[in-house]
Write a structure and sequence with these properties.
The protein has 250 residues and is an alpha/beta fold. It is built from nine helices and nine strands. The chain folds into two domains: 163 residues, Rossmann fold (3-Layer(aba) Sandwich), CATH 3.40.50; 78 residues, Alpha-Beta Plaits, CATH 3.30.70.20. Helix 3 packs across helix 6. The longest helix has 17 residues. Bound molecules: flavin mononucleotide. Flavin mononucleotide (FMN) binds next to helix 1 and strand 4.
Length: 250
Amino acid sequence: MKLFYYTATGNSLSIAKSFKGNLISMPIHLNDKDHYEDDVIGFVFPCYTGGIPTIVEDFISSNTFKANYIFAIVTYGMTAVGAEGLFLDLAREKNLNIDYINKIRMVDTSLKYYDMNKQIRGLERKQVNKYLASIKEDVASRKKRSSRNPIMLALSKRGYKSYKDEIGLCDQAFTVEDHCTKCQVCMKVCPVNNITVGDGVFFKGECIRCYACTQNCPQNAIRVDNEKSKRRYRNSDVKLIDIINANHVG
Ligand SMILES: Cc1cc2nc3c(=O)[nH]c(=O)nc-3n(C[C@H](O)[C@H](O)[C@H](O)COP(=O)(O)O)c2cc1C
């Protein structure tokens, strides 16, 4: 089994890891223009603004896939709206037929809207392991599932468009505090190579607002305008080095 994943804070990687397949990071292999074949192929990624990260769309556009069974799992925090339907449609446009799609609710990492203290406290109620076990049973039995609610899909299309329109503007929301040690972790966890570190930390205007830099900063030195908490989050099954290995090209 090949598992393609994209993660900023570890939720999607923790789900991908639990399948014990061959893990392949989408950002690292984004421009390989490869052809992938296996008996089973899976995609695991977060919901962004009711849609999906542009990295995921770009990855399925620039590579080809062949498998007897293809599944996808969207991780999300509050509501994935119509992200599943949106992904099914985008995949179909790229001639990729998804047999099964489902979603799993985890900590919501969007610092702009949520307090990480409250999110972490509320995690147990989301019963991640219970839902994951059920999805794994479905995948093991090669169940078919597609989820396409037209109203939710329309909302997601709008959300996805506004998310894409904001790419490049997101940098302006960051402030780096004086206690930054210029350790370069922000640069290494950024999945779009948007950060350079020299005399200071510089953003190049291509931010996709994943918050990998802010959430994974060892000094907690990056602030986001109107952030809902100073507390940061990374999934407890995932180490900083895993995020670096997942996102750092070069
Ligand atoms: C930019 C951004 C937008 C998000 N939008 C949504 C959303 O629309 N709905 C939702 O339920 N969760 C949303 N989330 C939460 C993530 O989907 C969720 O926390 C996910 O599990 C993070 O995955 P990761 O740890 O693998 O990066 C968003 C997070 C970010 C950073």
